[in-house]
Amino acid sequence: MKKLRFLLHSLMAAAFVLTGFQPAMAATSRIKDIASLQAGRDNQLIGYGLIVGLQGSGDSLRASPFTEQSMRAMLQNLGISTQGGQSGAKNTAAVMVTATLPPFASPGSRIDVNVSSLGDATSLRGGTLIMTSLSGADGQIYAVAQGSVVVSGFTAQGQASSVTEGVTTGGRVPNGAIIERQLPSRFKDGIDLVLQLRNPDFTTAVGVADTVNRYAAKKYGAPIAEARDSQEIAVEKPKTVDLARLMADIENLEVETDTPAKVVVNERTGTIVIGADVRVSKVAVSYGTLTVQVTETPQVIQPEPFSRGQTALQPQTDITAQKTGGKVAMLEGPDLKTLVAGLNNIGVKPDGIIAILQGIKSAGALQAELVLQ
């Protein structure tokens, strides 16, 4: 119990240190760390391909007919006749190939691709992805992938048992795709920049606009930024300024960020994350648990000497009930440090603290959003 309380106190104390010793002190971050450029978003690519060179761990062609059809089509394109006979080798697997095309990627650069089995292949370890075209949502081919597959999981099997660790039906091809087509980009032709906050918040959006305007007032003599809503900040480009250089100057400006008060609870793992701005009104909390223990201690009964009786077992059951906790504690958290200290003073496990937080929220004393995962 003491160890659990110490670990919980250490975790929450670390969160307090990261958020600052004084709750009123806001954290500062660079604009590039809290916002992204609207014109610089990622794009998803997808393709269908074959992996060859597997050691008998590929698709069974009878159970995965699309793998055989793909093999025949590929061989015919290479000028190899496939008429007659059916291959029973399990060294080929059909896979879906996915990749993320980064913004402003130029032809000739390489990106990583992920492969996932479509059929009944048991492992992709040791395979090679053959040339696969990757298309975007518009149907255009933007990259071509090929290369050796790296699989982190493994499977070891014997006659009586087998051991599997990780996922063996999915893998990765590092730098396996070459970009062949450039995305249509009008970054240089744009008249303004649109920044999108990763965590929408009106206070942070206005703070970003004010910081950019203070910088622009000194350098250009006029404000250029405006917060459209809680997520978007529009920045107008001065006529004599290069857009790329303007973005490079803006993204390194530091801004005081603000976040809403939240308590995130994961009941499966017992994880509790309390934000720095969480407040708890004065409330009385009592927490107690009832433990029931059933112990079976059967007694051996021996027959009398020189009798014709038989040895028997007489059942004996001991039931004990113990109720722990139950003390009433006053809990009030004007700041994170006081709140953590109050929760630790109650002396309960993380699952108990989760129940207490839910009860405080139901009572209306938790001045924060309670997020259950």
UniProtKB/TrEMBL annotation:
Stored Pfam families: FlgI
GO molecular function, one term: structural molecule activity
Sorted UniProt keywords: Bacterial flagellum, Cell projection, Cilium, Flagellum, Periplasm, Signal
InterPro entries, alphabetized: Flag_FlgI
Compartments (UniProt record): Bacterial flagellum basal body
GO biological process, one term: bacterial-type flagellum-dependent cell motility
GO cellular component: bacterial-type flagellum basal body, distal rod, P ring; outer membrane-bounded periplasmic space
Signal sequence bounds: 1-26
Keyword Signal appears in the UniProt entry: yes
Domain of life: Bacteria
Primary role: Assembles around the rod to form the L-ring and probably protects the motor/basal body from shearing forces during rotation.
Family: Belongs to the FlgI family.
Subunit structure: The basal body constitutes a major portion of the flagellar organelle and consists of four rings (L,P,S, and M) mounted on a central rod.
HAMAP family for this protein: FlgI
UniProt protein name: Flagellar P-ring protein
Organism: Gellertiella hungarica
